[in-house]
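Protocol step 4 of 5: obtain the predicted structure for the target chain.
Materials: sequence only (see below). No template structures provided, no constraints applied. The aim of this step is simply to have a reference model before the mutagenesis design in step 5. Sequence pasted as it appears in the construct record:
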Amino acid sequence: MMKLVKKIDRVILAEFGSPKELLKAAEKMRQEGYKEFDCHSPFHIHGMDAAMGLKRSPLGYIVFAFATMGLLGALGLQYWTSAVDYPLVISGKPFFSGPAFVPVVFALTILTAAITAVVGMIVINRLPRLRHPLFSSDRFGKFSDGSFFISVESSDKKYNEAHTAGFLKTIGGQNIEILKDE
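Step 4 output (structure tokens):
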């Protein structure tokens, strides 16, 4: 059975002075071959996804598939109940009256899509993370106040404490911390 949450016992954290420095550092991290790293910024930085080498999220396709199933399920249920299982002629309309089904079909499509989006986002982002080595850093608390960080997790294949910390320093990282899960 696949574990949804990876155990991360060590993280190297480096601080950068500006969004531009963080963007350049992310590109260098990707070029060096690191995969399990993350960039932390108080705001969105245009071009960061490409700099990190991130692929498009599959969440949109998953939501579309489940919304389509919700639409077909609602349409099928209403067709079955009004045309097959218990057919009644009401006000002279046909057994399968499409316009009468629109509100229920629309509501179930949107409901299914919304629930799938929330659950899918939680699963894809591996949430909740109640415990992570980053949470033990005092400096990391400043990332939402205007600081910029890169963190490299020990699950990365290229992770080597000395080499990775040295590499982060050569690309402009400051205040480099090696954080351990306690």
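Step 4 remarks: The chain has five helices and four strands. The CA atoms of residues 66 and 113 lie 6 Å apart.
Proceed to step 5.
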